[in-house]
Amino acid sequence: MRIKLSEPAQIERLLAFLAMDSNVVVSQIGLDEVEVSFLGSLNMGAQELESELRVQLWLAMHPDVIAVVQK
User: Fold this and answer.
1) Distance CA 40, CA 59 (A)
2) Count of structural domains, the chain
3) Residue 53: helix, strand or coil by DSSP?
């Protein structure tokens, strides 16, 4: 899954927030974009849903940022 932010200055905060989940590997692939890869025993659909919910929570805490999520 890829996540592109409207505010590149917020990318480090998103990386740190997503990295708290031990079932994902988060890599910055651009100034304003990260890629999330999944580990663990959850199936892919469940992991994507969990990560999307985590991104929605982060966005709710940062209402000035818009994110585009690609699966």
Assistant:
1) 25
2) 1
3) helix
